[in-house]
Specification:
The complex is a heterodimer. Chain A contains 20 helices and 10 strands. Chain A is an alpha/beta fold. Chain A has a 6-stranded mixed beta sheet, sandwiched between helices. A 4-stranded antiparallel beta sheet of chain A has the order 2-1-4-5, with helices on one face. Chain B is α/β, with parallel strands linked by helices. In chain B, strands 6-7-8-3-9-10 form a 6-stranded mixed beta sheet, with helices on both faces. A 4-stranded antiparallel beta sheet of chain B has the order 2-1-4-5, covered by helices on one side. The longest helix of chain B is centred in the middle third of the chain and has 48 residues. The chains are: A alpha/beta, B alpha/beta.
Amino acid sequence: MVDSPMKEPDPSASWDSITAGLDLNPTAKELTTPAILVRLTRLAAPLSRQSCAAVALGAGASLCAIGLASTSAWLLDRASQHPAVLSLTAVIGAVQLFALGRAGLRYAERLTSHDRAMRVLSKLRVLSFEALEPLSPGALGGARSGDLLARCVADVDILQNFYLRVLEPIAVSTIASVLAIALAWFFVPWAGLILAAGLVSGGLLIPFLASQLGASKAKELAHSSARLVADVVDILQGAFELAAWGRAGELNDHVLHLDAKVASLEKARARRRGLVEALGLAANGGTALGMLAVAIPYVQGAHLPGVDLAILPVLGLAAMDMVSNLPSALLELQRDIQAARRLFELERVPPPVKEPDRQLVIPLGAPDVSLQNAAVRYPSSTRQVLSGIDLELPAGERVAIMGRSGSGKTSLVHLLLRFWPLYGGSAYLSGTAFDDLRGDDIRRLIGALDQRAYLFSASIAENLRVAKPDATDEELTTALSVAQLEQWVGALPAGLATYVGERGAEVSGGERQRLALARILLGGFPVLLLDEPTASLDSATADALIDDLVNATQGKAVLLVTHRRADIREADRLMHLKEGMLYSTERVAQNLPW
Amino acid sequence: MSTPKADPQSSRGSTLDRDNHLPTGKTASQPPQSSRGSTLDRRLLREAAPARLAVLAAGAIGAGQTAFLVVQAVTLASIVTKVFLGNRGLLATGGDFMTLGIAVVGRALLAQLGEVQAQDGSSKVKSSLRRRLLGAITERGPVWLAGERTGQIAVTATHGLDGLDGYFARYLPQLILAVVAPAVIVAWVITADWLSALILCVTLGLIPVFMFLLGQEARSRMDRQWERVERLSGHFLDVVQGLPTLRLFGRAKAQARTIARITDELREETMQTLRYAFLSSLVLELLASLSTALVALVLGLKLISGQISLAPALAILLLTPEVYLPLRRASSQFHSAAEGVGASGRILDLLELPGHIAQPPLEPDRQAISIDAAPFPPHIAEMSPDESSPSRLKPQLVLPEPAELGRAGTSSVSLHMEHVSFTWPGRQKPALSELDLSVEAGSHLAIVGPSGSGKSTLGLLVLGFVQPDAGQLLVDGERLVTIAIKSWREQVSWLPQEPTIFSASVAENLRLAAPKAGGEEIAAALDAAGATEVVNALPNGLDTVLGEGGWRLSAGQRQRLALARALLRPAKLYVLDEPTEHLDAETEQEVASSLWSYLAGRTVLVMTHRPILVQGADCTFELGNPQMQMPREPADG
């Protein structure tokens, strides 16, 4: 496996494979492209004052560029007729104004449009977060959930540029094009038509051609490149094994062969790109040439003053320059629609757990949890991951559940945390059915510690205050001391304010779990689910953690799920989970490997 | 060349693209990179001949394009003049239109040629760097890159190098054009009007000065705000990944507001930096515009006084913006180049590494390490995997082919280590010292010891990847150094501590170690490694493609497949490093019981810390405690 740099989602990995575990509402109609576009455009608030200002500034800058070219050319034409210098003052002023205007307006436009785009980002982030929130973690495709989340964040990153790279360039190009065509028409109608044709072919037809040319070849290239990456990764990471088996040379030859294939595909791609570029340049020159040619008869027929002639080709060149960023905008648009489709589809995934219409209040007092004949099923599979589960977790009792990986341990924890619904049977918290309770109310009483607890890229104190935002420093220190971290934190120069690194990268596995322990203690949950809390630790660290867990959770109802025998020493009761069924110890005793 | 260097974004890789990008969580989380190798990378040109060729080609094509541009401008100006002042018609200017058409088509054709040429250069450079990297691994042996982050290197050698496409196809041509175009245009303008040429030269000269001043200011501002922007942009990913935790504590719904607030802060911070970052393009654009205006003014005055005629004046005016255009484009395309150049630089760095290692390979937590240029240790210089290496002693013995598993004949070897010591270069403490160890043919030895006691190093010594500093290894009484390494490795099957699962089908993965294995042998090996159920659970069984882009296995599944692969290889000596790592207790139990019976009659070295495996071995050897080699009592049933 590759380390971190491959974290970026592979764009070639099919979205379907990532969402395989998602229950994408099959009855709902598929989102149409126009609907996506409308929604996306709305998000960018194209009619807001800021958006309009950015477009106006951009169009102004483009027109200044056209104005600068045209007036300066006219200035020379006029000057060649030897007029009085003073008569040219206005034109000279206009030239200067256009020159300053072009640069100044462009700068202002850039700032405005970037600010607009960042405001869109804020909306997009909130939107995608709210879509993900009810789905996490149960409905996010299990092992592939990391891919899905990374893909989702990447989509937001792509879409944040929708305004900047798609909407605004298209709006600016359209407005400026129409004005440029009108101007050309004013001098010579035919020149206006030629300019219109040039702009349409340069801005629309040629980019369309580019996207159509060799689409299948592009796929082949993407596939071969991905293959090449995989093989180079293999050769480097498996260098020792390949040498030990005497197979390194063979694989090297294979890679070089693949490399040559990729190179030839790349060359074909370059030919296509070159063609598109050449067509674009030809369209530019051709438009100027055509506009000049059609204007000449007008000059000869005295319908156009000769002094104005130079304006037309110059106008043509400047206008064609304006649409030069349209191809990339259109390409970006395709990418954006795909990203938006994924994001908007995510919103339509029904939350796995339906919140009740009527909400009952959980009776006061130490809560107990009970499952009766409970079953769990995932939409992607026909098999039940859990079935016929009977479990009593009375207040103050410790129950340990052992089982090998894949036996349904995590599903059981998700069921109890109300991250996933019952498929059959019933579940009660202090005698009230889960179905009548809000998920948040259940999770107010039931807390959980994961096998690799998540730490936020923040300080120790901030990570702890996730459990209790108004906790005082004393409360934090108390929780830390129960988790046996008081000394460790005390020895840190920044103490509670110490940054734990990106997602907790700077703390050890043991410290991570203890910080998470302090966090759930601070949460004050009377029921705790410990889901393989020692799985990522070496055995000495694990033993110490279990001891401290036992001490810290006295008096609480604790469900410990583990596959480590040493973890269960202090349990009141031991059960075994095997292929989705829960057995009390007596019934599986003879199969025990210990 | 100074302009792109002064680009304020240059030191940040692609974080803040001046035109169209916003900082994202992804890119912003990368640490600031040094600006080294940011412009025309000298080392790349020196090291890669195709790169030099590409530069020459780009220069020639750029000069050609500019020449056509000059022809285009001059012809256009001449047509306008002829019609306007000479009152000629379309027919009379037909020749000029022909020339104009040729110039337009010529430019277009050169553009096509340039694109193909650039890709060709890029592909060749990428291939040559890749070939050299892979060749170096074969030549110097796998120990060369051990201790490096191979995953990162692989990505650099592929995706990273693909960034060179942007460098060769867009940045380099523009950069060269930024030098060639002003030179060609100014050369022509001098012949037409020296004063306009002077204006162009002065403004061109001002650009680097302004850019340098602005770049300094922008960079220092960005340095100050970097960490803050980085944290703010990473916040969203953090919150999304921590969603389950937030829901556990009932904090998820409240996060939407926090996300909006933090993103707002990010926007404000980013706009602060952009205000400065965009100044450089403002200055470029302003200089280009103002010099056009100034040239127009000067030419206008000269025309009024009759010091110049209209045709050259118009041509100069048309060419003036073209002097600045490549420079503006090059600086906006800078980001597309930085990544590829950085990647090629890292590959060249690696190739310059001496064949020594600063860290033992396959340590459980591989850390990125800085390689210091320590002298070439002699014993490492000898460890070429190539049997023809002159440093190996001759004559070399060739051992007989290993017998097929289960058949009669000599199916195992004895292995003895005498006073073997080994210290990793750059380390103070020896990994192994004065080690004496014996495994008789056909016996099973478990080697135990705390992590860091040299268990994995022992495996590398046996495989001949590293040579002992002192002492020797004997195989059936022959000194290992006298045996051809290739023929020795054919007798050995090795399961490293972190086995590699290749991006290929399960069957291909298995046959990498045992090309001749048949279906029954595969089934038996899978069974012994507890991997039958792993394969059965895969969508296409043995034909399921694994790895990147294929099926992903859990750590325990990978381990079992790798063990099956090691068991499948017909060998006289099996070296298994932590074979039951990542397995749950029940599976470990099953594997431990099947493993020993499968390997009955073979010589086996098992490095492990699991009591359950140790129980089944004939002998146990505790590393770090040489007196502890002792036969075990028969395992209790």
